[in-house]
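Protein in question reproduced for absentees:

***
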Amino acid sequence: PRILSGDIRRLYQTNRFIDIETEFNDATGILLVVVTHKPLVDKIIIKGNKEIETEDIEEVLTQEIDTVIDDSALVADKLKLKEKYDNEGHFNAVIELKIEETNDPEKVDLVIEIDEKKSLQTDSVHIHGSTVFSEESLLDRLQTSPSFWRYMFDTGFYNNLMLTADLEAIKRAYKERGYLDFKIVKT
């Protein structure tokens, strides 16, 4: 039983099987191992994306066509897609991954449904509590800013990567002035 248990564990670790059952026939001494294969991905279908090109989404995916469906890859792909949308300012985007059966019982389609929702725009940027720099001098160092035309055109979108870079620029400004003990709080 210990050896059989190890063999079954190694079969599961190949990530190729959904189920593995064993049956031992005492009369014949034959051990029957019945495996249920994970299906192969026949197609990856992306729906609902308007703001990010399909090719850009496909570049992020680790799950590939004609490979065994991999649950951990699907989880990672969903997180990567969410991060990509967040970085583009679409923080409310909802991403669903669905597996649909095909006519071939050994293949499935991976359907990625994206509801992009409306992206966030920057209305204003304020800096409070700085006694070393004026608000204007710090705002001049930032890339994040509202667009005057945001009400008429698609400009002035919030970008988390840009905000992170802006916070680093403020930290650099303080360190250049010799301040090592300070705190930046986003509200």
